[in-house]
Amino acid sequence: MIRIVEENLVRQNKGMILLKVLLEEEFARLMNRDPRGVSQIELSIQELLRQLSVERLSLRNLVKRVDPAVERIRELRNSMDEEAFNVLDELLEMLDKTEQQCAVQASKNHELAKALQDQSKSLLDFMHKEIQPKNNDAYSAKGRFAKAASNSQPHILRGRL
């Protein structure tokens, strides 16, 4: 049973390493402003996270089978030999370290994506402001002359009838 717990931790470590690589690839695609590429990577990341959560639930059930009173793997120290526990402890440390690296990379990706969104929004706002007519003395959508603002000066209207 302990061997199965160890195999589960190895799979989770490999999954976390793959997640780190995918997050770095997502960051590269964000830097290159490749939205389709980011979407493809994002789907892969979401599927990997789903698989990792299934592995976590499986590990929790395995630990309960080994000792029903235990909540965490590190609490299994009393029910296994020292050498086997050291292997599990090393795997847990590697998993924690990789998770921290993934969290840092995910935070960088979030900040970059948010900055790109803000930049795009401000550019669109600027473009909309620039294309709106500055002169309010124009015809409305119904074909009638739009009323000028109350503080504007009188103008002479020229044109053909």
Write a structural description:
The protein has a single domain (2-128), classed as Methane Monooxygenase Hydroxylase, Chain G, domain 1 (Up-down Bundle). The chain is built from three helices and no strands. It is mainly alpha-helical. The mean pLDDT is 86.
List the helices and strands and how they pair.
Blueprint: H1 2-31, H2 35-66, H3 82-131
Helix pairs in contact: 1-2, 1-3
Question: Any key phrases for this structure?
Answer:
3 helices; mainly alpha; 0% strand; Methane Monooxygenase Hydroxylase, Chain G, domain 1; 161 residues; 70% helix; single chain
Compose a concise summary of this entry.
The protein is an all-alpha fold and 161 residues long. It contains 3 helices and no strands. The longest helix has 50 residues, at 82-131.
Indicate the percent of residues in helices.
55-70%
Number of strands: 0
Give the overall form: rod-shaped
Distance between the termini: 93 Å
The profile of the biggest β sheet is: none
Write down the CATH topology: Methane Monooxygenase Hydroxylase, Chain G, domain 1
Strand content: under 5%
Compute the average pLDDT.
Answer: 86
Query: What's the CATH first level?
Result: Mainly Alpha
Question: What's the gyration radius in Å?
Answer: 30 Å
What is the level-2 CATH architecture name?
Up-down Bundle
| Structural domain tally | 1
Give the uncertain stretches in residue-range form: none
Structural class estimated from helices and strands: mainly alpha
* Number of helical segments with 4 or more residues: 3
N-to-C series of helices and strands: HHH
